[in-house]
Amino acid sequence: MATASDVRGGDLLDRLRAQGVARLGIAGEIPFGYIDRNGELTGEAPELAKVIFKRLGVDRVQPVPTEFGSLIPGLASQQFDVVAAGMYINPERCEQVIFSDPDYQMLDAFIVRKGNPLGLRDYKDVVEKKAKFATGTGYAEIGYAVEAGFEESDILIVPDQVAGLNAVEAGRVDVFAGTALTVREVVKKSSKTEATEAFQPLVDGKPHTDGGGFAFRPNETNLRDAFNAELHKLKKSGELLRILKPFGFTEDEMTDLTAKELCGG
């Protein structure tokens, strides 16, 4: 009998069809992939995975929660079959896993006080206006601000967007930078602040867009290709936006970017 290594492109899809279940690696991150208050698996990536795997003949998905930093090692050691955590596709990760094309793109936005008194629309404005600037622990936005000329030692690092909102409301900072999606969602509960229009940060002097997708083991190209084919159908029909909308995604987050472009090739 042929083993997995004998089948060009891997036989994981056939095995998942036989088992009737696909195991999804998630990192407990709202809105990407998490267990809700009722103990149910949800988030943009798991909900999309449910639809795509059903179309591929796999009836059920099962969550395998782990830390974000353990997703790629967990995939490699076969703790789960696919990473369904809205993971950003970048060249470093592309050396370790293969990605579907992105199901969403992500731009940046700022939390500012109501009326945006300093007129902050991008990182260049933050530098020029000498604004007090905050962003989150480990956020890509740290690098974007530094690229624009902000001193890293002058950045206030807070745990997350809620702490960022509090810092702007309290006047400790003028601006908090995050993804357009998280910023839009968090200011809904605030009467003192607003979200700026989404914008592209600059990386190496060029406008940059992030995109997130599903990660597979490098030898499982058959599954990745079949998954991609269904994803593209959902994009074309508009169903993808309908699946992602409950998690705060809008038309602005829809994308035609490819994994190849985001991997740097």
Automatic annotation (TrEMBL):
GO terms, biological process: ectoine transmembrane transport
Superkingdom of the organism of origin: Bacteria
Domain (Solute-binding protein family 3/N-terminal) ranges: 21-251
Single GO MF annotation: ectoine binding
UniProt cross-references to Pfam families, sorted A to Z: SBP_bac_3
Keywords: Signal
Coiled-coil region(s): none
Protein name per the record: Ectoine/hydroxyectoine ABC transporter substrate-binding protein EhuB
